[in-house]
Specification:
396 residues, alpha+beta, D-amino Acid Aminotransferase, Chain A, domain 2, 2 domains, nine-stranded antiparallel beta sheet, nine-stranded mixed beta sheet, EC 2.6.1.42, branched-chain amino acid biosynthesis
Length: 396
């Protein structure tokens, strides 16, 4: 058993803890990154507007933001790793191509993981992140599973913070959207035979975005249960945010969209009985005051929003269970919703299984529990409500 796999096994259970380090703990930990922060600020002064200076937003139509790269941020972060030096302290550079050979490991054998995060303008007039320590921990666990050198968690959080600070002009006004951030870890060194890359790149780019689904943030989505293909299998990679996990779902997702569905629900690979995930988000099933979501058993991604909704719902009096949910149980549920960084909380209007369609909401109306969770979560994320969990991390 490889050292990387043993480390991943040790790290994975931490993703299901009730709460990772608080904001105050995160800030103390990030204090170790002062030297890197100083360097980032020095480089940023030459490559981007002075920190805190926000350009006129006339070039972006904040009322028509979609989820794409139309308004990609001007500055990105890049750090390099070599066996001799480990990770360098990174730098901020103009958004543009990365330099790698056709023989780069990531292009041939797919050694890559990524994260999804958001920065938002808050009701307090500042820009904030949401639980970046959780993303840093998951990034570390994913690197171990993929036999890659992990990025120190303090460097990860500081790199994300610096990327946001130097792209403040791309943060939408409150309520208009968010600055979506995409941290990447890639095996960029050249290699011919199968093996770990000899060099790695840690990069972060960003873009101003709106709602993930075309209908809008609170418009219910229609799902179909997939029975031919599976997203993950026991002992596989389903619990890791590896780049290679996502393109295989396109064959079913695109077919579903042709037939009028927003996305696909996948079942467990052993029995085709239990719900696992939607293509890129976790799923919750509601019956009365009980909310169930599939347990983390290695085939399901430990979503940061998933964990937050579990904790938030429990604090609001719901009986939240991380337990297997059969497709038949889901078809009898009062309500279903999905969660993820991109989708936040999305109400499911209907689910179709073997030709039978179960409607959960009135046309165009979000389910009551989904709406409650969305409002409670986003109020914390935008500092409209008191953050008793210490989830919000101020950038500027």
């Amino acid at each position: 058993m490889s050292l990387g796999f043993r480390l991943w096994q040790n790290l994975l259970p931490t993703m299901n803890r009730s709460l990772a380090p608080s904001k105050a703990q995160c800030l103390r930990r990030c204090g170790a990154a002062n030297i890197a922060r100083t360097r980032l600020h020095t480089i940023a002064a030459a490559a981007a507007p002075v920190a805190g200076e926000r350009r006129a937003k006339a070039n972006i139509d904040w009322d028509s933001l979609g989820f794409g790269l139309k308004d990609v941020a001007a500055t990105m972060y890049v750090a390099e790793w070599t066996p001799e030096k480990g990770w360098d302290s990174g730098k901020l550079v103009p958004y543009g191509p990365l330099n790698m050979m056709p023989s780069a490991q990531v292009l041939n054998y797919g050694q890559a993981i990524f994260e999804g995060m958001k920065a938002q303008e808050s009701a307090k007039g500042r820009v904030v992140l949401f639980r970046p320590d959780q993303n840093a921990a998951r990034f570390k666990a994913g690197a171990a599973r993929m036999s890659m050198p992990s990025v120190p968690e303090d460097q990860f959080v500081e790199a994300v913070r610096a990327t946001v600070e130097n792209n403040l002009d791309y943060v939408p006004p409150m309520g208009k959207g968010s600055l979506y951030l995409r941290p990447l870890l890639m095996g960029t060194g050249p290699i011919l035979g199968l093996g770990p890359a000899p060099a790695y790149t840690f990069a972060i780019f960003a873009a101003a975005v709106g709602a993930y689904f075309k209908g809008g943030q609170l418009t219910p989505i229609d799902l179909i249960v997939e029975e031919r293909f599976h997203r993950a299998a026991p002992g596989g990679m389903g619990g890791t945010k590896a780049a290679g996990n996502y393109s295989p779902v396109l064959v079913t997702q695109l077919e579903a969209k042709k037939n009028g569905f927003a996305d696909v629900v996948y079942l467990d690979a052993k029995t085709d009985t239990y719900l696992e995930e939607v293509s890129s988000c976790n799923i919750f099933v509601v019956k009365g005051k009980t909310i169930k979501t599939p347990p983390l058993s290695g085939t399901i991604l430990p979503g940061v929003t998933r964990r937050s909704i579990i904790e938030l719902a429990r604090s609001r009096g719901y009986d939240v269970q991380e337990a297997a949910v059969s497709v038949h149980e889901a078809m009898e549920a009062d309500e279903i919703f999905t969660t993820g960084t991109a989708v936040v909380v999305s109400s499911v209007g209907s689910m179709t299984y073997r030709g039978n369609k179960k409607a959960y909401t009135a046309p165009g109306q979000a389910g009551p529990v989904a709406l409650e969770m969305y409002s409670a979560l986003t109020d914390i994320q935008t500092e409209k409500a008191d953050d008793k969990f210490s989830w919000v991390y101020p950038v500027k």
